[in-house]
Amino acid sequence: MEILKLAVPNKGRLSERIYDLLNRAGLNFQTKGERVLQVNTKDGNYSVIFLRTQDIPNFIEKGVADIGFTGFDIVTESETNVDKIMDLDFGNCEMVVAVKEEDEYQTVNDLPEKFKVATSFPNITKKYFEKIGKIAEITEVTGATEITPRLGLSDVVVDITSSGATLKSNKLKIIGNILKSSAVVIARKNLSDELKEKSKVLLMALQSVLDAEEKKYLMAHVPKKSLERVKEFLPGLSSPTVTQLLDDTENVVIHVVVDKDKIYDSIYKLKQLGGKGILIMTVDQMVR
C-alpha cells in the first residue's frame, strides 16, 4: 500500500487553516507537537510533512511529497512543473505594486523607464515589468518590504496584501495589480494509479468540508397547508425533505440545508407561516 505524502505549511497564515481542514475532512492525525516535522494518519494512508510555504512547490516537483498546500502566488513565483488540482477559496490576497503616498505616480505607466524595486517575488516582478516595457532593478527581500522605500532601498515595492492596511500604515499607495492569489492544492507529475485514486478521495473530502462551511441544517414543524409557500424560499439542495409526525395530521417536519447567510431570514419566514420547534445544526461535511 502506497502512502500519499502531503506537504503542509509549517507556520503562517495558511498553516492552521489547512491543518484544521485536513482534520475535519477525516484524516485523523496524531497530535502535532510544536517541533514535529512529520505526522501520519492513524489509518496509515496519509503522511504530512510540515515545510516552509515557499519550499512546498519545489518539494512537490522533486517528488519528496505527492500533494502540496500553498498559495497560488508561491506556485507562480517558483516556476515549478506541478499540477494545480484544486482552489481552496481561502487565504485570498492580491499582489500589488506600491509607491510612497507623496509620489506623483498614479499608475504603473507613470513610473520612469528605470527604477528600484524591493520584493519577495523577483521572478513575477521581473516578468511583469518587462511586459509593460519598464526596467526594474530588483532587490529580493524576505520581509518588511513596506519599509524599503523610506529607507532608500527601493522606489517601488511589489508585495502581497489582503486589505491594503499594512501598506497604508507605512504610507504607501497601490498603483498597480499583478495577480490574485488564494490557497491551492498542487500535485506532482506522474502519480501512480493508486496515489491518483487516493488524491481524488482526499479532494472530495476537502470539498465536502468547504461546501459545508457555508451551510446550516434546518429542521422545523410546519403546517401542511404552508408547504408550497415554504418551498418558495427553502429549496434546499433540491427541495425540502418532508416527514410525517406520529400523532399530528395537521403538521409535518421539514429537513433542509440552508445557506448560512440566509438562515435567520428563513427562520423568520417559517415562523410567519406557523413554523415551530425549529432546530439549527451545523453541517460537518456535504457531498453533492
Can you give me a brief rundown of this structure?
This protein is an alpha/beta fold and 288 residues long.
What report would you give on this structure?
By secondary structure, the protein is an alpha/beta fold. It has 3 domains: 4-91 and 182-212, Periplasmic binding protein-like II (D-Maltodextrin-Binding Protein, domain 2); 93-181, D-Maltodextrin-Binding Protein, domain 2 (3-Layer(aba) Sandwich), CATH 3.40.190.10; 215-282, Alpha-Beta Plaits, CATH 3.30.70. The chain contains 9 helices and 15 strands. It has a 6-stranded mixed beta sheet with strand order 2-3-1-4-11-5. Strands 8-7-9-6-10 form a 5-stranded mixed beta sheet. The longest helix has 21 residues, at 193-213.
Task: Give me some keywords for this one.
6-stranded mixed β-sheet; 3 domains; Alpha-Beta Plaits; D-Maltodextrin-Binding Protein, domain 2; 5-stranded mixed β-sheet; single chain; 288 residues; alpha/beta
- Tell me the major beta sheet: 6 strands, mixed
- Note the beta-strand portion: 25-35%
Number of H- or I-type helical stretches: 9
Structural class: alpha/beta
- Read across the widest sheet, the strand sequence of neighbours is 2-3-1-4-11-5
State the helicity in percent bands.
Answer: 25-40%
Order of SSEs, N→C?
EHEEHEHEEEHEHEHEEHEHEEHE
The CATH topology label of the largest domain is D-Maltodextrin-Binding Protein, domain 2
The low-confidence runs, each spanning 5 or more residues with pLDDT under 50, are: none
Number of domains: 3
Radius of gyration: 25 Å
Tell me the CATH superfamily of the largest domain.
Periplasmic binding protein-like II
- Mean of all residue-level pLDDT scores: 92
Q: What is the distance, rounded to the nearest whole angstrom, between the alpha carbons of the first and last residues?
A: 29 Å
CATH class of the largest domain: Alpha Beta
Number of strands: 15
The CATH architecture of the largest domain can be named as 3-Layer(aba) Sandwich
